[in-house]
Amino acid sequence: MDLMGSRVIVTGGGGFLGRRIVHDLEERGATPIVIRSADYDLTDPERVREALRDAQAEYAIHAAAVVGGIGANREHPGGFFYANAVMGVHLIHEAWRAGIRKLVIVGTVCSYPKYTEVPFSEEDLWSGYPEETNAPYGLAKKMLLVQAQAYRDEYGFASAFVIPTNLYGPRDNFDHDTSHVIPAIIRKCVEAQEEGRDEVVLWGTGQPTREFLYVDDAAEGIVLALAGLDDREPVNLGSATEISIRDLAERIAKVTGFKGRFVWDPSKPDGQPRRAVDGSKAQKLLGWSPRVSLEDGLERTVRWFREPRE
C-alpha cells in the first residue's frame, strides 16, 4: 500500500516512539494526525469519537501507552492496566465504527510469558503468564490483540499487531522514578561523573538478559506494517541481539566514560529472566530488519542526553 497523500492518525504521536513514527510517515508522503493525551483523553469514548471526527483520517496507528520501568509497574499496576486496556478498547471499537481502513496496534514484549524459550516466537504468546512485575501492563496490551482479531473475524476490520522489544534512543524518558533500564543507567553514570562519585547502584543482580531496539528502527517497522501487513497474528520487531543487564551497564559505562564501579542491589527485582524475540516473521512479511546496532544506538542516545546538559 502506498501511503503517499494518506491521512494517518498517530495516537501518542508526541511521545518517544510516536515522534519517530510521525517522522517516518512524513518521509513517505503521508499526513500524520497527532493525537495527544493533553488534547484527547483516550480513556473516554466520547473523546475518542471526537478525535476521529476531527482527524478525518483513513488509517491509524495506536502507539499511545502508559509505560514505565519495573518500579513504575510495581507502584501503579492498576493504573497501568486500566489506562492501556481502556484506551485500546475504545480506539479499536470507534475506529471500526468510523470506517478507518486499517489500524496498527503497537503491543509490548511484556505480554510474553515469564518463562519463554528464547528467542520468543509469536506462537509462544499464550503459553503462560507474564512476569509478575509488569503483567497488568502486558496483559492489557495483549487483550487488544484479542479484540483486533475478533473485530477482523466478525466485522472484517483490517488491523495489524506488532510487538517491539525494549526500545531506547534519543528523547527517551530519563526520569529517575519511571525510566527503563538504558536511560536509567545512562543518567546514573553521567550524574556520577558530574558529581565526582565512583560508585553507581543498580537494581537487581544484573543477570537477566534483554534485547534492545533503537526507536527509529521500531518506527520503520510499524509504518511498514501499516503499508504492507495483512495478517491476523502478531509480528515481533527485534534486534536479534541479547545482552545481560550487567554487560549492558559495562557498555554504557564505556560510552559515557564512567570509570567507577557498579554495585548491584539484589533486594530489587530483576524482572523477566531472559527476553529476546524471533524477528524472522517481520523479515519475511515486511522485508524489515533493524539498521542501528546497539553500540551506535547507545552512542547516539548518550550524545543526545549530554547535549542540553553541557
Measured as a percent range, the helix fraction is 40-55%
Report the major sheet.
Answer: 6 strands, parallel
Distance between the termini: 44 Å
Query: Stretches where pLDDT falls below 50 for ≥5 residues?
Result: none
Structural class comes to alpha/beta
Question: What is the count of helical runs?
Answer: 10
Give the strand line-up of the largest sheet. Answer: 2-1-3-4-5-9
Strand residue content: 15-25%
Describe this entry's structure for a reader.
This protein is of the alpha/beta class. The chain contains ten helices and eleven strands. α6 packs across α10. The longest helix is centred in the N-terminal third of the chain and has 22 residues.
